[in-house]
Specification:
Blueprint (H helix, E strand, L loop, with lengths): L7 E6 L6 H12 L3 E6 L1 H10 L4 H6 L3 E3 L17 E7 L1 H9 L5 H11 L3 E6 L6 H13 L2 E2 L13 H14 L32
Parallel strand pairs: 1-2, 1-4, 2-3, 4-5, 5-6
Helix pairs in contact: 1-7, 4-5, 4-6
């Protein structure tokens, strides 16, 4: 991208549970004035109906550009289309596994493969537990390929008061990986009240 161009981020949404992470990511990017390019699977539309009161049209309205899964001619399928990278939120094990093989069958995984080959940042918010050895080996393989594995785990040191707080903290920390600082993120040493820190002043990030 030229210095004058608006920053762009690809948002992939798979059918894994936790579609709220994708919704909030799109809303956060809108607040940050970052251009969002979204591709969501058919299974994501099903999960949306199970987990939220929203319709697929509501999801697509939150994105600046929305593409269909078979559209492998979309801009995000080409490395010449410059972006900050891609976040898949949430990321299913199937999606993760397909990206790891490099044999991609949809725009969602093709866009992820392009991000890796262009050495851009790929963040996978994996939604599954527990993991078996095959899952862990796939995560290792993807990490070696340049991806970042980031399950959306709650940060209790931020003293979340609601499920929304926990979602926002995970989304904010994921966006940090692209150099994007969102107001929904609570930060240790900045937003966390001094009087509510552990008595021993232990840093929850390092345990020291």
């Amino acid at each position: 991208m030229s210095s004058e161009a608006k920053a762009r981020l690809i948002v992939g949404i798979s059918g894994a549970s936790g579609i709220i992470y994708g919704l909030r990511t799109l809303e956060a990017l809108k607040a940050l004035d970052v251009e969002s390019h979204m591709v969501a699977s058919k299974a994501a539309d099903m999960t949306l109906s199970y987990e939220t009161p929203f319709k697929p049209s509501d999801l697509r309205e939150r994105a600046d550009f929305a593409y269909k899964m078979p559209d492998v001619g979309a801009p995000i399928a080409s490395g010449s289309f410059q972006t900050l990278g891609m976040i898949i939120a949430p990321c299913s094990v199937r999606t993760m596994s397909e990206i790891a093989t490099g044999v991609t069958s949809s725009l969602l995984t093709r866009a992820a493969d392009v991000v890796l080959k262009e050495r851009r940042r790929l963040v996978l918010m994996i939604r599954e537990t527990p993991f078996h050895l095959g899952h862990l080996r796939t995560m290792t393989q993807l990490t070696e390929m340049g991806a970042i594995i980031m399950p959306p785990l709650p940060a209790f040191y931020a003293h979340p008061k609601s499920l929304d707080d926990m979602v926002d903290q995970s989304v904010g920390r994921a966006l940090d990986l692209f150099g994007l600082s969102w107001d929904g993120t609570r930060r240790w040493g900045e937003d966390i009240e001094e009087g509510r820190r552990p008595a021993a002043q232990v840093n929850p990030q390092t345990g020291e």
